[in-house]
Write a structure and sequence with these properties.
mainly alpha, 68% helix, globular
């Protein structure tokens, strides 16, 4: 027969607590939330600014007008990264961290080239832009392959981003305004995909159903 164990009672003069203190309950409560509700709008606003620059909405000498938007998008993406990491959502944290890195590096590139921070000769500016675009194409291609186990909309999103960067690279190589505009319109295309994904996330966060996002390419 098991012997019951005695639990110590409250110290003299202390009230008996039937529930733990609020601070203890909060500490034990699981973390929750939808980081994408911040991350996706940050991605969308940065992509819209990037796309308008490529299309030529602002003159070539006024590209710096997009920098505040790009920096805000980077900050929002990094906050989302921290939020997702706190929840243990490693893939989400990684994706938004990469997105924030892209927007921050693009903003710094624009500022650096506009103010001659890098002490580059005019002939080296195009090469610098090529290095930037090619480097990020490698990372985005990695995301395309890394999201094959996620709903297909995420793989498609990054595939379209890759297409936009490839067209941007061709526009730099060939000095073609038409290719740059094509890259900008493709950017608007993947922005529309991100908007759809945001509405799906918002629907789920407000008690509704997620929109169809497609089956993943890999299921094992």
């Amino acid at each position: 027969m098991a012997t019951p164990t005695l639990t110590p009672g409250p110290a003299p003069g202390q009230p008996v607590r039937l529930v733990p203190p609020v601070e203890e309950q909060l500490a034990r409560a699981p973390l929750a939330g939808e980081p994408a509700l911040l991350g996706l709008p940050s991605f969308i606003v940065g992509a819209v600014a990037f796309g308008m620059v490529l299309i030529g909405v602002v003159p070539a000498g006024a590209v710096g007008a997009a920098v505040p938007i790009l920096l805000a998008a980077a900050v929002g993406s990094f906050v989302t990264t921290i939020w997702a990491a706190r929840l243990g959502h490693s893939m989400e944290a990684g994706i938004f961290g990469i997105v924030g890195g892209f927007f921050l590096s693009y903003a710094l590139l624009v500022l650096g080239l506009s103010h001659s921070w890098f002490a580059l000769l005019p002939a080296a500016v195009l090469s610098t832009q090529k290095v930037f675009v090619i480097s990020w194409m490698v990372i985005i291609t990695m995301l395309v392959l890394g999201t094959l186990r996620l709903p297909v909309i995420y793989t498609a999103l990054f595939a379209i981003v890759d297409v936009a960067l490839f067209l941007d690279l061709l526009s730099i190589i060939q000095n073609s305004a038409n290719l740059s505009k094509a890259a900008g319109w493709v950017t608007m295309g993947f922005t529309a995909v991100a908007v759809y994904t945001f509405f799906s996330t918002a629907s789920h966060a407000t008690g509704g159903k997620e929109f169809p996002l497609g089956r993943p390419f890999l299921r094992t």
